[in-house]
Write a structure and sequence with these properties.
The chain is 43% helix and 13% strand. Helix 7 runs parallel beside helix 8. With 368 residues, it is α/β, with parallel strands linked by helices. About 4% of the residues have low confidence. It has three domains: 65 residues, 5' to 3' exonuclease, C-terminal subdomain (DNA polymerase, domain 1); 186 residues, Rossmann fold, CATH 3.40.50; 63 residues, Winged helix-like DNA-binding domain superfamily/Winged helix DNA-binding domain (Arc Repressor Mutant, subunit A). A nine-stranded mixed sheet has the order 1-2-6-5-4-3-7-8-9, sandwiched between helices. A three-stranded antiparallel sheet has the order 10-12-11. It contains 16 helices and twelve strands. The protein starts with a helix and ends with a strand. Strand 4, helix 8 and strand 5 form a beta-alpha-beta unit.
């Protein structure tokens, strides 16, 4: 997205009553972010879901504030990803409520081949911190490019980030405020280190405070960016459980470490497992097995080209990508094929019907 269109997108997203879904609808109908501000009010009122209050807010949009945000971005070398950019995180493309604009300070590819998020209570026990450390340490030995995602909060979040840095894994903190501050301030040193070995990502412009509702909203980004969401410790209620719920709605794999029934910090995890909202894991090996990351086809058989004579162009593309006989996760296939998951899923299902592809745990696929 060019600078001028980015300016109008920033202005649009700062308008009261205009969220990501409404903004996406307005852009689709008018043709561009700039066109929204140049459209006649009478035409805007004809758009479903747009009332007089929203039109009035559009007419008095704070363009000066948007201009200052552009200056802040450029001055501080902040990257922006908009919904129409090629480098927009591909895993978020299939999330209906994904942010139209993301601000990023870091050096890590958000489209990493494998991504996990560790979430949990802010009142983590030493046991929970040790679980996070051991899991990440073991995973780092097999997957040195694994991207670890969390929310930079107290407890499990910061333990996950620190463990990732310690074991040389890139780690991303999804924050609930602008990039002009770090919250909590006690995590500044870790956050600074993350920028050079991972990064900080937010949908909020500078000047945004870490208000309570922002933390709930940022949890959907944590879930959407992850192949697997792992709840380490959680009480009966908490942000980690919201992240798990959202992950399930996005068809992401959710896992939880079990705990003693008498432990307050494990009740949320135990309930997720009990309600079949998360798979029980006790180690990195469990996670690897359930995600199918260690599965290699037992045969080197090459599927003959003549089997593909009745395949569509997209089906042929997918079978070609799977010819290495190494299972691939659906999000990786989405990146390699340049097909969003919502289009890729029915193609894979059709290939299953044709007996050419098999689905394995963890949303991975391979040739039969």
């Amino acid at each position: 997205m060019n600078r001028q269109e980015l300016f109008y997108l920033i202005a649009l997203l700062q308008i009261k009553g205009v969220g990501n879904i409404t903004a996406r609808n307005l852009i689709a109908i008018t043709g561009s972010c700039e066109a929204i501000f140049r459209e006649k009010p009478s035409n805007l009122l004809r758009i479903q879901g747009i009332g007089i209050n929203t039109v009035q807010e559009i007419l008095k949009a704070n363009m000066e504030k948007a201009a200052k945000e552009i200056e802040f971005i450029e001055k501080n070398n902040i990257a922006t990803f908009t919904y129409s950019d090629e480098n927009y995180p591909s895993r978020l493309n299939d999330c209906v409520d994904a942010p139209l604009l993301l601000y990023y300070k870091g050096n890590t590819d958000l489209n990493a081949v494998k991504t996990i998020s560790l979430v949990g209570t802010r009142n983590a026990t030493e046991y929970g911190k040790e679980l996070s450390e051991r899991l990440i340490a073991d995973l780092s030995e097999k997957y040195p490019e694994l991207l670890v995602i969390s929310g930079l909060a107290y407890g499990i979040d910061i333990a996950a980030h620190k463990a990732a840095l310690k074991h040389n894994l890139p780690t991303i903190g999804i924050i609930a405020h602008g990039l002009d501050r770090i919250y909590p301030a006690t995590h500044r040193k870790t956050a600074v280190e993350m920028v050079s070995h991972g990064g900080l990502l937010t949908e909020y412009p500078s000047g945004t405070n870490p208000d309570r509702q922002n933390f709930v909203m940022r949890n959907r980004i944590i879930a959407g960016l992850s192949d697997a969401v792992i709840v380490v410790e959680s009480a009966e209620k908490g942000g980690a459980l919201i992240t798990a719920e959202v992950a399930n709605s996005y068809n992401r794999d959710v896992f939880a470490f079990p705990g003693r029934t008498t432990d307050v910090s494990s009740r949320g995890c135990n309930n997720l497992i009990l309600q079949n909202k998360a798979s029980l894991i006790q180690s990195a090996e469990d996670l690897i097995n359930l995600m199918g990351w260690d599965k290699v086809s037992s045969t080197n058989k090459v599927v003959q080209q003549q089997l593909f004579l009745d395949l569509t162009e997209e089906e042929q593309l997918i079978t070609n990508l799977l010819k290495e006989n190494t299972p691939k996760q659906i999000n990786l296939l989405s990146i390699e094929s340049n097909l969003p998951v919502y289009r890729l899923s029915p193609i894979l299902l059709e290939l299953e019907f044709k007996g050419l592809v098999k689905c394995m745990p963890g949303g991975t696929y391979s040739l039969r």
